[in-house]
Amino acid sequence: MKLLTISPSLDIRFAAVILLVMGLSTPGQAEIVSLDSSNIDDVLNNAGVALVNFYADWCRFSQMLHPIFEEASNIVREEFPDTKQVVFARVDCDQHSDIAQRYRITKYPTLKLFRNGMMMKREYRGQRSVTAIADFIRQQQVDPVKEIHSMEEVNTIDRSKRNIIGYFEKKDSDNYHTYEKVANILRDDCTFLAAFDAVSQPERFSGDNIIYKPMGEGVPDLVYLGSLTNFDLTYAWAQDKCVPLVREITFENGE
Questions:
Q1: Which of 10, 114, 191, 231 has the fewest CB atoms within 10 Å, counting from its CB?
Q2: Residues with Cβ < 8 Å from 89, sequence gap 6 or more?
Q3: Alpha-carbon distance 86 to 138, whole Å?
Q4: Using one digit for the tens of pLDDT, what is the confidence trace for 33-85?
Q5: DSSP 3-state of 213
Q6: Do 179 and 210 touch, CB atoms closer than 8 A?
Q7: Which is it for strands 86-92 and 32-34: parallel, antiparallel or unpaired?
């Protein structure tokens, strides 16, 4: 009886094929940033959008979420490769209880959304699935500002909603970038619109400006009188208009 022999060169080629197949079938390394007191402010402040998983290792639901969160991160990173545009991060709340207290985390896992370092009021309460989490991040990348192409459009806006309209000489300006940043943070509370160049000229008699149109017909508009390059002032003014003192509490806005 003859034994089948395989040449050394065939062994090498066979091993190479196996390694190639393994490489193709192995999922990419998830880019999840572990946050602690030394890096959390720097990471979040420099992220356009950050989704943070606050977890505890002993929690079974936290353990179940880990691979889902990592796979969602892989999918999102392929679509948004800029590491400062979207960040997936996590906090071990047992190891970093000070951070958990800072953000009032009382249950695990909790997914919180941050924009430019500011925590959004509404935590992620969607399905804990790869598709749902990835879709949620895609929605956060949609421009919250609708462009107005004629002043006639202003007369047709939905007055059952709170509307803020910005009039700018050009889109690539510090004034508009401040407005856009505010719109991103308050996108769930107000409708934001903007007009540029010749379209906005009739409303720019004193320079770039923004106007709040309250809910209801016949209610007078309110003009922002502060500096548009000052984010804190602009945000405080818009938040005061978009977030009423008395609100209906629902499952989505309970935070």
A1: 10
A2: 32, 33, 34, 35, 43, 44, 50, 51, 52, 53
A3: 10
A4: 999 999 999 999 999 999 999 999 999 999 999 999 999 999 999 999 998 89
A5: strand
A6: yes
A7: parallel
On the 0-12 / 13-18 / 19+ scale of CB atoms within 10 A, 119 is: middle
Locate 86 and state its tokens: 């979207």
178 three-class SS = helix
- Residue 55: HSE in the Cβ half-sphere, 13 Å Cα cutoff: 19
Residue 237: CB atoms within 10 A of its CB come to 19
Enumerate the H helices of 103-171 as residue ranges: 130-140
Answer whether 195's CB lies under 8 Å from 165's CB: yes
Q: Record the tokens describing residue 248, joined without a space.
A: 């209906």
Are the CB atoms for 199 and 148 separated by under 8 Å? yes
| CB distance 93 to 106 below 8 Å | no
Asked whether the CA dihedral 110, 114, 119, 124 is positive or negative, the reply is: negative
CB atoms within 10 A of CB 190: 21
Helix H or strand E encompassing 242: helix 231-242
pLDDT at 189: 93
* DSSP code at position 216: S
The pTM of the full predicted model, rounded to 2 decimals, is 0.77
Integer Cα distance of 29 and 68 in angstroms: 13
SS3 string, 66-112, reads HHHHHHHHHHHHHHCCCCCCEEEEEEECCCCHHHHHHCCCCCCCEEE
Q: Are 112 and 120 in contact (CB under 8 A)?
A: yes
CA distance 193 to 161: 12
Q: CA 72, CA 77: separation in Å to the nearest integer?
A: 9
